[in-house]
Amino acid sequence: MSSGHIPERSYAEMLAALRNKMFTGRSAELRLLRELLLGERQGCSVVWLHGMGGVGKTALLRRFADEAQTHERVARTVDMRHVKAEPEAFEAALAAQGPTEDAHVLVVDSGELLGPVESWLRDVFLPRMPSHLLVVVAGRRPPSVEWRTDAQWWHVLRSVRLGGMNDVEAAQLLRNRGVSEHATAALVRAAHGLPLALVLLADPGDQGMYPAGPQDDHGSAAGPRHVTGLQGSPELVGELLRLLLRESPTLPQTDALHVLSLARVTSEELVRYALEVSAAEGRELCDWLRGLSFVQNTAEGLVPHPLARDALLTDLRWRGPEKYERLFRRLYGYQVERVRQRTGSRWVFGAGLAHLGRTHRIAWDAVDWRDADRQRLRPAGPDDLEEVLAGVEKEHGVAAGRLALRWWQHQPTAFTVAEDGLGQIVGAVIAPSLEAGSTRIPDDPVAHAALAHTADRSPLRRAERLLLARWITGSTAAACSVLTTLWATAPGLAMSWTCTREGPRGLAPMLTLYGHRRAGTMHGPDSERVLPFVQDWRGTPFDRWAATLRTRLLADEPSAARAPEAGTEPVMPWPEFADAVKHAYRSALDPRQLAESPLLATRLVSPGGDSSELREALVETVAQLRSHPGRRQLGDVLEITYLSGPRSQQAAASRAGLSFGTYRRRLSSALARAAELLRERELYGPMPR
User: Fold this and answer.
1) Torsion sign (Cα): 423, 428, 433, 437
2) This protein's superkingdom (predicted)?
């Protein structure tokens, strides 16, 4: 060999070097494996790494096998994706790599596919292996219970759960792959710490979908504008779901996955209700969901990994808008019905109802919903007081903290906290309940102003209460859950005042989406600026409010979420308004009859407006219905029946190409939907042209 010859590396060596260069994170796991490989082992000879698909198990195994080679330790690898689940096939795969007794490390990938080989590995194969052999198994599921209950194995087995990357590690992985800094924060948020998603999102062709966004509740970049970071790439969603699921689900299982993606937590009862299946079918579907690697079993129910939730929900909305709307209505109705029962689980159902609203573009932009499905709401106790008051002082000032203490002394039941999965308080709501003429309350200028405002416009009657959400700290998602529960269950609730602060993110946009009326800015102690939102629950009971909100959430239109200013209460109660809309359409072609409509006294027309202006509002509402793909037929039915010339209902049904019974049902639905749109027009103004 000449002195100038440079030995070439093999492709295997080059690939290993590249893997090591690109590898990011997992320092704790590598440290553990390294210590077991190089140190004096104290009994541990089997390490079982487990975690959901895409969490980086294979990458970690390869990195460890490369390290073993670097330290001149022989590693043998068996990937069960390519080996039949039989002892003979397992041994053949090992023998093809050389004598097993020479190995220092045995690496088994895709351990969830071991099947019957797992018991053979434990009971037959490993006992005859040399004691210096370190076995590392990686799979989507933890080791079977036999490993932990068998006296000869429980003390030599270490089970390690692999979670997602933290934001720092995720950002470094993206930088290693050449992702620009301006796209990194949004990609990190969209991937929810899953290495597989980070790698797929790092594709240069997909990065343009993720512009740098505004700041979320905690100061990090908010990322993509609406719903999920996956909406711009159906191919990416399909690839993620294929890798996460590994096998094609049946149609009932697909339906159960869609429930899992929409609901905050999924239970057997919820699956039965949403899919209208028997108890046995619901149990079978939930058992199947529970076995998926990306599903966590919590005290409240099943919760998917956030990226799996995003991918499944995006896939549902692409593939079946009508199915999405139908399932949304079923889940929404379930949560409303359960939370109104005021049972001990009211916090779960109130949180579930609030969580369904996260898919609206305003809710997605305004609130960080990450980990909201793992938060637990409960009344605050004395042990929580110090932490809650510290949060009030941090966000609202020292004087506010002192005043909050006086409210605790007066009404401790007004304090509610939200805990994360580790039991740490991540948010609090302080919402005392006030009666008319309350005098023995803390000297709080905001509380006195709320009572005075209510007395001036519509005094509280006996047994009626005003709910004053005075301070809200921490997670806005938790605040939405707490408030929704209180609005549904507070005894005698007549009015609510919810105090927040100005800003494009946080609670104020959510209260606007909820249709609460914005009152004028006022001041608390030490010039604390308070922006209250007001809701009169006597004119709009919770069930009706929830139905209106459901319509707004499904419409998913920014213009449908503009809140009226204080003082713009509807002139007519809803039943009278809806009835007046029906009569107005029947009179749409007769100016004299239309001139007698009580709708002329509402804000559908300008002061002094005449029947022609009202007719214009009726016509524009039909056009609005016809412009929506899912409601076009409703608009056509109204157009044919009331606006294109007088005709009998039988003739209108024939013109619409419908049977008479179907036509009558469509007409009833069309009038109801038109009344809802006109009510929104009255409250929020006409839709922009």
Assistant:
1) positive
2) Bacteria
Q: Answer yes or no: are the C-beta atoms of 637 and 652 closer than 8 Å.
A: yes
Residue 536 is given by DSSP the state E
Nearest in space to 315 (alpha carbons), one of 224, 254, 376: 254
pLDDT tens, residue by residue, 352-408: 999 999 989 889 888 989 889 999 999 999 999 999 999 999 999 899 999 999 999
Angle between helices 542-555 and 321-339 (to 10 degrees): 160
**Which three-class secondary structure string do you get for 243-270?**
HHHCCCCCHHHHHHHHHHHHCCCECHHH
Please give the Cα distance from 616 to 604 (Å, whole number).
10
| Token pair in block for residue 650 | 């039988």
Amino acid identity, position 112: E
Q: Where are the beta strands (DSSP E) in 116-241?
A: 134-139, 157-161
Rg of the chain over Cα atoms, rounded to whole angstroms, equals 31
Going by DSSP bridges, is the β-strand pair 517-518/415-419 parallel, antiparallel, or unpaired?
unpaired
Structure confidence at residue 472 (pLDDT): 95
Could you give the angle at which helices 385-396 and 398-410 cross, rounded to 10 degrees? 140
Q: What is the pLDDT of residues 81-111, one digit of tens each?
A: 999 999 999 999 999 998 888 888 999 999 9
SS3 368: coil
